[in-house]
Amino acid sequence: MTIGRADSVTLAAQREAIRCARLGPLLRRCGDALRVGSRANLAVRLTDDTELTELSARFLGVAAPTDVLAFPSDERDRVGDIAISVERALAQGNGDGPAELRLLVVHGLLHCLGHDHAGAAEAAAMTAATRRLLPHQTVAALVPANG
Predict the structure, then answer these.
(1) 115 belongs to an annotated ligand binding site
(2) Which of 5, 17, 25, 46 is the most exposed, fewest CB within 10 Å of its CB?
(3) Terminal-to-terminal C-alpha distance of the chain
(4) Distance between CA atoms of residues 72 and 14, nearest Å
């Protein structure tokens, strides 16, 4: 697993939220719970709204900021890549940036592993999986993307 912070993530509050979120241990625990192979690789990029907007435009055709993007891999022993806007996580985290970062990294991981929330049943299943992986955190129900 690789977690990288973009040079644009410079504010002390952003760096402190990243440190407090403890994303590495969380992802290792989630990988074990989801039976992801110990040799499987996942790359997480912690960045800003500008980069997420560029990635969204390039890969989804939507030039708008978002909080997290997931890019599943078809390669053996590679889960995929996740990009998270730390800037957006702190803005929407209701005063708990580390919790929002944990939620977004789990959300991205689940997408990389094939979960989705396009319909009501999928959204409910992904919400349940997220709640199992973040048992000490309040997790709102996902809204179906197509509903």
Answers:
(1) no
(2) 25
(3) 34
(4) 26
Query: How far is it, in rounded angstroms, from Cα 48 to Cα 89?
Result: 9
Half-sphere exposure of 33 (CA within 13 A, CB side): 16
Annotate 47-72 with b (16+ C-beta within 10 A) or e (fewer).
bbbebbbebbeeeeeeeebbbbbbeb
**56 contacts 65 by C-beta, under 8 angstroms:** yes
**104 three-class SS:** helix
E runs forming strands in 6-147: 41-47, 68-72, 78-85
Residue pLDDT, tens place only, 37-74: 888 999 999 999 999 999 999 999 999 989 999 999 99
Give the model confidence (pLDDT) of 65-115 as tens digits: 899 999 999 998 999 999 999 999 999 999 999 999 999 999 999 999 999
Helix, strand or coil for residue 62? coil
Is the distance from CB of 72 to CB of 80 less than 8 angstroms? yes
For residue 13, give both structure tokens.
Answer: 């509050």
117 is in an annotated binding site: yes
In this structure, the number of other CB atoms found within 10 A of the CB of residue 74 comes to 6
